Amino acid sequence: MKKNIVKFWNSPYCKIILLTIVLTMLVPLMMSAFKVGKAWRVGLSFLVLNLCLAALFGHWIKKTQQPKWTFGILPVIFLVLVLLRYLTSFYAYLLVVLYLLVEYLAFLLTHKLSD
C-alpha cells in the first residue's frame, strides 16, 4: 500500500491533479478574500487561468504521449470541485466542454518532438 502511494505521488498525474485542485479552488478563494467582484473572479479564474491550464495540458499530453483518458482529468476535477462549491450551475457544464475543446485543440496544434 505504501509503495502504491509513493508511486502515485511520483507520477505525472499527481502533479496535474494537484495543480488543477489548487488553481480551481484556491485562486477563486484568494480572489474573494481580496474582495474581487464575482464577475472578475469567474472571468479571471475560470476562463483565463483554466483555459491556459487546459491548453498546457493538451500540449503536455501530446508532448509526453500520454493516454487519451488524460484529457478528462482537468474537466472532471473542475466539475466535481465547482459542483461541490456552487452546487448546480449551468456554466460548470459549459466550461467542462470548453476545457475539453481547448485541450484537444492544443493537442492537435502541438508538434511532436521528433518533427
Automatic annotation (TrEMBL):
Query: What keywords were assigned to this record?
Result: Membrane, Transmembrane, Transmembrane helix
* Stated name of the protein: Integral membrane protein
Keyword Membrane applies: yes
Entry's transmembrane regions: 12-34, 40-61, 68-84, 90-109
Question: Which organism does this record belong to?
Answer: Bombilactobacillus folatiphilus
